[in-house]
Specification:
Layout: H1 3-6, E1 16-19, E2 39-44, E3 62-68, E4 80-81, E5 92-93, E6 106-119, E7 122-128, E8 137-143, H2 146-149, E9 168-171, H3 173-182, H4 189-198, E10 214-219, E11 222-229, E12 233-241
Parallel strand pairs: 9-12
Antiparallel strand pairs: 1-2, 1-8, 2-7, 3-6, 3-8, 4-5, 6-7, 10-11, 11-12
The chain binds S-adenosyl-L-homocysteine.
The site of S-adenosyl-L-homocysteine has 18 residues, from strand 6.
Length: 246
């Protein structure tokens, strides 16, 4: 038996860290690409923070980001999970899903590579359409190669296409005033909130039912409050800042 089959462990170094407007799991889209206005960065760290590692990467419009589900890692994993796409009540094998509760908590997302910044030897990748929690540790980055990574005729079972039912999003007077106030710091805020809420971030069992709960979600340093209006629309009723000098 060779050494690697005796020791069933591998060890990786973290090569970067994500800065994301998503400060908590609630309301993060279930896949990248669903919220195109979600912008973030990856700051390369340690030995990987070397401009040589990204030489010629900027010619690719999209990259694969391999990361650790650090936010759920401590909860361990389960062989069977209930994907939200199946209404949250059917259990299927974890390896048949993109659940975060996997034997190894590794996530992979295709994101848009907007630009690469190198200042004082610090490499920062600007990315968008992300589904990554703030401070996500990155273990690898690879160029997205459509001729081999994209298989348009592939079968994807219960996840064949993007969820079709998106919600209508409106802003009440108070929320509109707040949007104007914060637009200086966050120019695309209205679009970002709209795209996030259109995905219906509520747990699957709430969908299609009358729901008068007031929800709160954190994006950047802002807390956004919203409520269902009927079954298919959401009204944003408040936007407040956790940081007073914004
Ligand atoms: N595109 C990835 C992730 C799919 S699951 C993949 O297919 O592997 C998407 C969910 O991952 C999001 O809803 C978000 O809640 C969760 N997520 C994103 N970053 C995370 C992190 N660092 N830790 C735990 N969960 C995370």
């Amino acid at each position: 038996m060779n050494k690697s089959s005796v020791n069933n462990k591998v060890e990786f170094n973290i090569i970067g860290q994500v800065n994301s407007p998503y400060k908590e799991k609630f309301a993060i889209p279930r896949q990248p690409g669903l919220v195109s206005s979600a912008k973030g960065t990856i700051t390369l760290i340690g030995d990987a923070n070397n401009p040589e590692l990204v030489r010629e990467l900027a010619q690719f419009s999209h990259i694969w980001v391999l990361f650790v589900f650090h936010g759920t890692q401590e909860q361990g994993w389960k062989p069977l999970v209930r994907p939200p796409r199946l209404g949250g009540n059917k259990k299927i094998g974890v390896l048949a899903t993109r659940s975060t509760f996997r034997p190894n908590p590794i996530g992979m997302s295709v994101v848009k590579l907007d630009s690469i910044d190198i200042k004082d030897q610090q490499v920062i990748l600007h990315i968008s359409a992300i589904d990554l929690l703030d401070k996500t540790p990155i273990v690898d980055i690879k160029p997205y190669v459509p001729y081999s990574d994209s298989i348009p005729q592939a079968n994807a079972g219960f996840a064949q296409s993007q969820p079709s039912s998106t919600l209508q999003v409106t802003f009440n007077k108070q929320a509109q005033i707040a949007l104007t106030k914060y637009s200086h710091n966050f120019p695309d805020l209205a679009l970002f909130i709209e795209q996030v809420l259109a995905q219906d971030p509520r747990p699957a069992y709430k969908q299609g039912k009358i729901d008068d709960k007031i929800y709160g979600m954190n994006l950047y340093d802002l807390n956004i409050q919203w409520q269902m209006q009927g079954l298919a629309s959401i009204e944003v009723i408040g936007i407040t800042s956790a940081v007073s000098n914004l």
